[in-house]
Structures are given as structure tokens and as C-alpha cells.
Amino acid sequence: MDTFALFPLNEPDNPETSSLEPTRAERVHIPPGPPPELPPSGRLQSFQMVFTGYEERQAVVEATRCIHCPATEPCIIGCPLHNNIPKALFAIEQGKHEEAADIFRLTSNFPEACGRLCPQEVLCEGSCTVAGYDRAVNIGKLEAFCTDWQRNHRGFPTPPPAPATDRRVAVVGSGPAGIAVAEELARRGHVVAVFEGWPKPGGLLHYGIPNFKLDKNIVQAKIAYLESLGVKFVCNTRVGRDVQVDDLFRQFDAVFLGIGAPVGHRISLPGEDLAGVYQATEFLVRGNLPLADVPKGWKSPPEIGKTIVVIGGGDTSIDSARTARRLQVQHGIPEGAVVAYYRGTEPEMRAREDDLLHAREEGVHHEFLAMPVRFLGDAQGHVRQIEMQRMRSRPARQSPQRVPSRLRIPIPDSNFIVPADIVILAIGYGGDELIASKTPALKTRKPGIFEVESEQTGVATLGGVYAAGDDVRGADLIVTAIAAGRKAAQAMDRYLQSLP
Predict the structure, then answer these.
(1) How far apart, in whole angstroms, are the C-alpha atoms of residue 292 and residue 295?
(2) Residue 444 β-bridge partners
(3) Mutual orientation of helices 85-93 and 56-64 as an angle, nearest 10°?
(4) Segments of the chain scoring below 50 in pLDDT
(5) pLDDT at 21
(6) How far are the Cα atoms of 33, 344, 393, 401, 463 from residue 398, in angstroms, in the given order?
(7) What per-residue confidence (pLDDT) applies to 408?
(8) What is the pLDDT of residue 7?
(9) Smallest Cα–Cα separation from 380: which of 245, 457, 459, 276?
(10) Dihedral sign from CA coordinates of 367, 368, 370, 374
(11) Helices 56-64 and 139-153 sit at what angle, rounded to 10 degrees?
């Protein structure tokens, strides 16, 4: 049955009183439509984004499923950026896609990325009232739809230039937090330079996220937009190695640290240094990017084998596994196996539900409650097998629904051997200690994790230095990094305006 025929979408002056609009009771009975995606059979031949984007008609129908909760706005509360989701969806419902995009951009510096990468099922969509009747409104996909529509039809909206303040800011890192700070301060009239250790700007969004989740062209379009605001990017420059924080203060009035939590944890097991054992970041960079974007030392594709084992249960492990499946097909191994082992149970995984489903559709197999003991190599020093051990829950006085993985303990005499031509370690990330080691006045609460006055200001322990995002919270979400960056930018703007 045609939803449009049942529920006319004429523009009302007041959605609460117009007889042209469907009632809330009618809205909850609009059937959800599946988001347009590449079929599993067609994904492995390329790194094209799996979500192909709503057509306008599909987006309007999906937005009309929002019931515009009268007393509360749970989706806004559930969003770390507090996007005005109902207002944006109502604009899409009316066909005002650019207006919807502008609404998201009022509170988010990169809604194209958040719409694709946030774990909406535990944030805005996890709070959606419609989920009590049917599947939650597909907020993330609608966020991506309207901002893509605006970018493709109108380009990024250009604000009127603010009066120049002649204050200069150095932003260290061009990931989500750095992008947010650079944009907010440039729009306030400050001169902003972003220092990035990778060969191209974009940080995590360019180097850590595969194209099948977020196309690099979207990231680089955002970078070009920031450059149009006057932001300068200085790449292949690692602060703490090539230039020090103290050096930056000779040119800049304030410094923002947004380097994230980029250091992959080592697993510290025998055989970890065998050939064919990769840290996830190296595997993803070498497997997803053109050689021109790859730093020295990694300018060759990763090795690929018939059996690839991924260790870990988060987003990075899923990204690595899905990348490995595509590379197997490209290397003529379509029947290759990719197996991901995780020491916890499936509900404990930190990966997004969509990504886990896509991985399974693409042929990735998961084994739970198992962890490696050692990696076994051949005579040439190349990994060939892994000795694994089964795990169980540690007895506890209480029985929580989710038992943290740290409470898992090995089961005696449960060891087993699995084949592994390639191993990818995706067991989490920590802070980079380099900057703090070269700047003693910057205190840390954990290695590479900076101490700040509060997350509301990001004021670090060295005057004029601010920090936010993963290098304050530890490895977390893109949306929380953007939210923290926006708060730090507000505090920095107040500080810069207070200078004589």
C-alpha cells in the first residue's frame, strides 16, 4: 500500500493541529523500510560504501515514522551532541532536505560521519519511542541522507566571515575532535593551523575507517571546506617529534591537543612478532588506502592468506575482518576464511549491530569465549597457527546481564590449535605518550591520556593548552569526540578573547 496515499505530506503550519498530517497513532503504523544497501554478493568486489543512500521518496517515508513525542525528546537526550532530531526529520518529511541538514549542522561538525558511524542503536535510536512499536526510526541514515543531499546539491553552507581577531591557534590532530575545534574557532575569526602526523588530513576518519563505511571523498570534502574557511593543514608533522608544544607557543596563542588514542595495545604473547601478525591500524591503512596516502614504511599492501584470524571484539576488529574478506577476493581467494575470536560473549562486543550483521553477510565467522595463548610459526618465522583457550565467567556475588570481559577466566585443559596464515590484533587502543614525555608540564592520568580541569572546558595543566576527545576520555566514539571538541572550542574562544 502506498504510504503517500494514506498520509499526505503537504506542508502544515502546525504539525500538531493540521488535518493534513498523520496522527501519532497513524505514524507508528507506517512500516519501516530497509535502508538501501549493496547486496552481500556484490560487496566484496570493491570498497564501495555498503549504505547506498536513501532516495528522496524513501527518506520522506522513513522521516514520517517519527511521532514527535509531545512531552519528552528522548532521541535528543540520547544524542551526545543533542541534535534536534525531531525538527530535522520533520523538515525531511516536508521535502526540505537542506533545512534538515542545517539543523544537524547547528550542533554537529560532521553529521555525514556521525550518521554513518555512530552506534545509533544505543544512542538516539536506542532512545526512540517508535522502537516500542516497531524498528526505531532510522535516524542515522536520515542524517546522512540530508547532509549528503545538501553537500551534493548546494555544497557545505558557508557562514558569513567573522571579524578577524588576529589570534592564532594550533590544533594538534585532524580527527573528529580536531576538526570540530578547527571549524568552531575559524568561524569565530581566529587563525587556525592543524598539525597532522599522517601524510593527509582527516586523522581517524581518513586512516582508520574503511571506505565501505565512510568514503574518503566525504572526509576530504570536509577538509576542503575547512580550508575555504582559512584553516591551514600541516601534514607529515608529528608534534613531540618534529615540533614541540613549547615551539608552537612561539607562533600561536593557544594549542589544542586532539591526537586521540592512536596506539594499538600489544597482546604480549609468545610469537606476537612473527611475520604475518599485524596491528589493526597498520593492516587497515595498508589495505584501504592508495600508496600516496600511506606513510613511509607501509608503502605496500598487507599480506593476505587463505585463513585470516582477527583477535578482538570492537569496531576495529569488525573493520579489519571485513577489509580482509575484500582483500581475499581481490587476491583471488574468494573462498578464504576470516575468523574473529573474542574472549567475551556476543552481547559484550562493542561493535555496531549493523557492522556485525554486515560482517556475517560477507562471510566473517565469529568465535566467542576464546582467546589466544601463543602464536606458532614455521621455520621461516611466519605465523601459521594459534594456540587458543576457552574462557568462562568468573564466579560473582551478583549476576549482571553483561559480564565484563575482564571477569572471564580460562578453562583449564581447554586449549586448541587453529590455522592462521595472517593474524590481525584489534584489542583496543591507548594514548600516545610522546607529547607528554616532551612537555613535563602536561600532566596525564594514564599514559598518553591528558589531565584536564573538566570535560566542559578541556583546560589542560599547561596554560593555553586544551585537550578533548579520546586523548582525555580514552578510546571512545566519534560523536563524543566532536561534542568534547565543541566544548573545548568554546572555552578556547573565551580564553583568546581575554588575552590583552
Answers:
(1) 8
(2) 450
(3) 130
(4) 1-19, 398-403
(5) 80
(6) 41, 18, 12, 10, 46
(7) 80
(8) 38
(9) 276
(10) positive
(11) 140
Yes or no: say if 169 and 492 are a contact pair by the CB < 8 Å rule: yes
Output the pLDDT for position 235: 98
Give the Cα separation of 63 and 27 in Å (integer).
Answer: 10
Contacts of 46 (CB under 8 A, 6+ apart): 326
Distance CA 205, CA 175 (A): 6
- Number of helices (H), then strands (E), belonging to the chain: the values are 19, 18
- The whole-number pLDDT of residue 420 equals 98
CB 13 within 8 A of CB 19: no
85 with 75: CB under 8 angstroms?
Answer: yes
Domains of the chain: 3-153 (1.10.1060.10), 168-260+433-498 (3.50.50.60), 266-427 (3.50.50.60)
Q: Record the cell numbers describing residue 401, joined without a space.
A: 546481564
Cβ burial, residue 261 (10 Å; 0-12/13-18/19+): buried
The SS3 assignment for 140 reads helix
State phi, psi for 32 to the nearest 5 degrees: -70, 140
139-153 vs 85-93: helix crossing angle, rounded to 10? 60
State the pLDDT at residue 404. Answer: 52
